[in-house]
Amino acid sequence: MGEYTVFTLSQVAHHKSKKDCWLVIHGRVLNVTKFLEEHPGGEEVLMEWAGKDATQAFQDIGHSMSAQKLLLKYQVGVLQGCTFTKGSHVSIEEPKKFEMSAFVIKDDRMPKYELLLDFFLPLLVAGSYLAYRCMMH
Ligand code: HEM
After folding, report:
1. Cys-Cys link to 77, which of 5, 70, 105, 130 (CB 3.0-4.6 A)?
2. Ligand 1: which residue has its CA nearest to atom 4?
């Protein structure tokens, strides 16, 4: 992966026409000029955010995972001072890492069968012992 150019928001603000449209989402600077006509949500909404940080608007719509991956296709740089990129590297793996940590948290909980075993195993042992004693008498 190469290194991305760092842009300030005021540099991004220069690219706000239909023929040269940039916007920022999640700290990524995107050149969406070629995407304007393709956007399923229409080009008007994109133009509203031309030259600006559209992260909140993008989030509010609840864009699909494939829409989020599509962001990478149009990325031309990173926003100066953005927190999610350390240094100038932006990794495609970043959203996946979030999914993974969510899984880890879920897996951390004790599985149900283990709880059942903890409860029933001593009962089973005690029951077997009593049955054995009865049979011996
Ligand atoms: C480069 C940035 C963007 C990409 C790649 C993108 C991509 C997409 C895609 C693929 C869809 C189809 C539905 C889905 O898969 O979620 C969509 C729908 C939509 N997008 Fe975007 N989008 C971007 C930015 C924005 C922004 C900044 C807005 C601002 C509000 C916006 C508003 C919408 C709306 C209103 C829809 C229609 C939702 C619906 O019909 O339910 N998008 N976008």
Report:
1. 5
2. 67
* Two tokens, residue 105: 């948290």
What would the pLDDT profile of 43-91 be if each residue is shown by its tens digit?
Answer: 999 999 999 999 999 999 999 999 999 999 999 999 998 755 433 344 4
Residue nearest to atom 42 of ligand 1 (CA): 58
* Full domain range(s) for residue 57: 5-90
Q: Tell me, what's the ipTM?
A: 0.88
To the question of pTM greater than 0.80 for the whole model, the response is: no
Residue 30 alpha carbon to ligand 1 centre in Å:
14
Same-domain check for residues 15 and 80: yes
- Tokens 């953005």 sit on residue: 82
Q: Domain tally for the chain?
A: 2
